[in-house]
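RECORD TYPE: protein structure
NAME: Serine/threonine-protein phosphatase 5
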Amino acid sequence: MDATANSDVQRAEEFKLKANDAFKANKFSQAIELYSQAIELNSSNAVYWANRAFAHTKLEEYGSAVQDATKAIEIDSRYSKGYYRRGAAYLAMGKFKEALKDFQQVKKICPNDPDATRKLKECEKAVQKIRFEEAISAGDDERRSVADSIDYHIIEVEPHYAGPRIDGEEITIEFVKAMLDEFKKQKCIHKRYAYQIVLKTLDLLRSMPSLVDVDVPNGGHFTVCGDVHGQYFDLLNIFDLNGLPSEENPYLFNGDFVDRGSFSVEVILTLFAFKCLYPKAMYLARGNHESKSMNKIYGFEGEVRSKLGEKFVELFAEVFCWLPLAHVINNKVFVVHGGLFSVDGVKLSDIRSIDRFCEPPEEGLMCELLWSDPQPQLGRGPSKRGVALSFGADVTKKFLQENNLVKDEGHEIEHDGKLITVFSAPNYCDQMGNKGAFIRFTAPEMKPDIVTFSAVPHPDVKPMAYANNFLRMFQ
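PREDICTED:
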C-alpha cells in the first residue's frame, strides 16, 4: 500500500470514529455525513457501509439502509452485521419474509450467537403469524364492515364508572374537555363512548371525497399540523398554544396520528371527538402510519388491544381506510401527508377519484400521496424510505402550475418556497431533540405563519411501549 492510500485509510478511520460519536449523541444526519466521508476515502470497508445503514435506520430511511447494508454484504459476504442491518431495515418496512432470509444468514454465520438465535425465532414467529392471517383472509373479496356489527347502544355503562359520559347521541364540548382531563390522568373512557366516537367519525368520513376542498373565509385562519405520532401531551400543548379546535379555530391534522408514541389511543380519540363535535372545523388526512402493517409493527395495534380490546383493532383499521388522502385550502394550498407522483400530468380530479377504501398499495397514486418525499435536486429519484419516490422542485412547480395552485410567496423552506414540510412531534420518540411545528394560514393571502414549539413532559411511558417485541429488539 503506497503512502497516499495508507493516509486515506487512516483518515477514513478518523471519520468513522467521529461518526460513531455523532451516532451516540443521536446526531444521525451528522453521522451519515461522516460515514460518507469515510466511504469516499475507503469504499471497500464493509463496516462503514453497515454503520451508515444503521444511521439511516434511525432516521427511518429504510430504503437507503437496505442499499448500504447490501453494499456491505457485497464487500464481505461473511459479515454478519451487513445481513443484520438489512434484516432490521426490512423488518421496519414490514417486509418480514425478506427480513427472515437475512436473519437466517446471520444464524448461519454465527451459529452459537444466542442473540442471533433469539431474533431469528421472533422473526419466524412474525412471518408465521402473517402467513396465517393471509390464509384466513384469502378469498374474502367482499368488504366486510366491522362497524356494521357493532351497536354501542346496547353496551351497558356500569354504575361504578366515574368517568365522563355522553348523554344521548350528541358529543358535547363539556364531554370532550372532561375526556382530555381523564387522558391526562392516564385513565380511559368507557368503551361505549369510545365506540360512539369512532363510529360517528366513520359515518362522517364515509361521506367525504378522497380530496377535500376547504374554504377559509376572508379574515379567517386555518391551522395545519403534521405528524403527532401518539404524543398526546404535545398535542395538548398545540391546543394550549393555538386554542382548542372550534368553528372559529379550524384545524387539519395531516396524518400519522398514531404509532411510536405510547399515547396513540388518547390522540386518536381526541382528534375523532373533535371531528364529531366540529365536522367542518376538524379535518383529518391519512398518513402512511394509518395502515395495518405499520400499526402492527410500531405500537398502535398493541396499544389498542391493551387499552380497548381486539374489536377496536379491526374497527380502527376500517376507519383509517376512509380517511381522505389530500386537502386543498382556498384553491391555493395543496396539503398531503407524503408528496407528489412518479408521472407528470396528475390532476386534482385524478386524486378525487381514487377509490381509497383499502390498505395502502405498494405503488400508484395512493402510495405516492402517502409515502413520497421532497429532494433538493431536480427530477425524481429513489426514495430513502424504500417506498414511492423522491421528487424535486421542478416536479412541485409543474404540479402546482398544472392545477392552478401556484402562489407567489411562501415561507422559504424547500422548492423555492412552494413546499413546506411540517412535523408536529417534538423530541420525536423521546430522543431526537427536534422541535415541533404547525402552520397557521390567514385568508385571503394564505401566507404561512410557522409556529415552532418544544416538547413538554409526559408520564414515564416509553415510546414504542406497545410495539412488537421483535421490533423493539432492533431499536
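COMMENT: Residues 3-137 form a domain with the Serine Threonine Protein Phosphatase 5, Tetratricopeptide repeat fold (CATH 1.25.40.10).
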